[in-house]
Amino acid sequence: MKKFVSISLITLIFAATAAGVYLNVKKQNEIDQTRLPLKVENDRDFQRWDTNIRNKGLTVLPDDFKLSEENEVYNSQWIKITSIDDASEKAAFDQNLANHKDIKKVVFAPSGTMYLDYRNINKDGYTPNQVHLYGLKEDKVLDARILDCSVRGNCYFDRAYWMDNDVFVITEWSRDISKKQEVIPVCTITDKCTYTVKLHMVDLNHNKRYVYESKPFDIVLNDWIGNL
């Protein structure tokens, strides 16, 4: 009888422990779905970005970011895919990479075979409010408009960095306006406007883009652009 009670007690303890672990993991997952992922928060490039804006007088805490969107990355209208096995394409690919080395606001993946061009100018057929992704994915060359933002929102891409060969982050400053707003009050980059920072985390392997948006704040963007 004592042996039966001991076994039952041990079973109950394990069941309670398992239930507790499950609830903790479930709760943690629910939190992680809405807040900035720790792998981003702890990333050196994010911390450097955070330190830079703090030093310039603006505090945007990691906890200020909340998940606002989740969608697919690839769009057939915005991407061109060719085979690296084609000799002419291979030559064009090598030349393209060489042409984009050592350029400010062009960042290469750790592999060195893919880059993001987020320069705030017209470049290679892309406009200042568009980010160009170019490079090798397995045996295919991708040439894509991977991200764009609203000109009406005074949008400005200030930083991009790779976390690995398939995951990258881009930060966007833009006015705190809704996509559903048909009439948007005029507020230029030389005016004090209400902005948010949108942190785009893109996972090419899983074809996902997660957008984390900060709390709003008031700045004159033109005064900030030189500091970002």
Task: Describe the fold and architecture.
- Helices cover 29% and strands 32% of the residues.
- By secondary structure, the protein is α+β, with helices and mostly antiparallel strands.
Tell me the domain tally: 1
Order of helices and strands: HHHEEHEEEEEEEEEH
- Structural class call reads alpha+beta
Low-confidence spans: pLDDT under 50, at least 5 residues?
A: 2-19
How is the main sheet built? 6 strands, antiparallel
Question: What would you report as the Rg, rounded to the nearest angstrom?
Answer: 23 Å
Q: Which range does the strand content fall in?
A: 25-35%
Task: Describe the structure using short key phrases.
single chain; about 230 residues; alpha+beta; six-stranded antiparallel beta sheet; 5 helices
Q: What's the short story on this structure?
A:
The protein has 228 residues and is of the alpha+beta class. The chain has one domain. Helices cover 29% and strands 32% of the residues.
